Amino acid sequence: MTFPYYDPFGAFGAIFGIMIIVIIASCVIQIAIAVWVYNDAKKRNMEPAMWLAITLLAGCIGCIIYLVVRDPIPTDTIPIGNEAYDTQDVRPKLENGTFCSNCGSEIPAGAKFCPSCGNPR
Ligand SMILES: [Zn+2]
Predict the structure, then answer these.
(1) 121 CA to middle of ligand 1, Å?
(2) From the CA of 110, how far away is ligand 1's center (Å)?
(3) Distance from the CA of 119 to the center of ligand 1, in angstroms?
(4) pTM exceeds cut of 0.70
(5) 51 and 15 belong to one structural domain
(6) Average pLDDT along the chain
(7) Number of domains in the chain
(8) How large is the average pLDDT for residues 69-95?
(9) For residue 14, what pLDDT is reported?
(10) 35 lies in which domain range?
(11) How far is the CA of 118 from the centre of ligand 1 (A)?
């Protein structure tokens, strides 16, 4: 008669092995989530180190809390928006005016001579 308690390769051994695999897998997933939260918090100016610690300690619950309270990505840090605005602002000036071929100064629209060196446009 054998007791499963004394058999390392029996049912309890198998369950113990599966438990270790599940624990390791959940640790890897938790670290991956924490790294994602860290990078996402950085984009939103939200103290990434604090949220990394919260996600590592609280696991999925920490990640859910983060998703609920996180700020939207600030629009003024997105360069595409600023570039589009700058291009629109500058374009009419460049279409009407020109740059001096002699000194490189900007010649306003309608001016016959360069205001900087007097070179005809
Ligand atoms: Zn000039």
Answers:
(1) 8
(2) 15
(3) 5
(4) no
(5) yes
(6) 79
(7) 2
(8) 58
(9) 84
(10) 4-74
(11) 6
How many angstroms separate the alpha carbon of residue 114 from the centre of ligand 1? 5
Cα 19 to middle of ligand 1, angstroms: 79
Query: In terms of domains, do 10 and 46 share one?
Result: yes
Tell whether the model's pLDDT for residue 88 goes beyond 50: no
Give residue 96's pLDDT.
58
Strand pairing class (98-99; 106-107): antiparallel
How big is the chain, counted in residues?
A: 121
State the distance from the centre of ligand 1 to the C-alpha of 95, rounded, in angstroms: 18
Return the pLDDT at 105.
Answer: 86
Element (H, E) at 107: strand 106-107
Q: How many CB atoms lie within 10 A of CB 18?
A: 10
Report CA(88)–ligand 1 centroid distance (Å). 26
- The residue assigned the tokens 């983060």 is 66
CB 58 within 8 A of CB 34: no
Distance (angstroms) between ligand 1 centre and the Cα of 120 equals 8
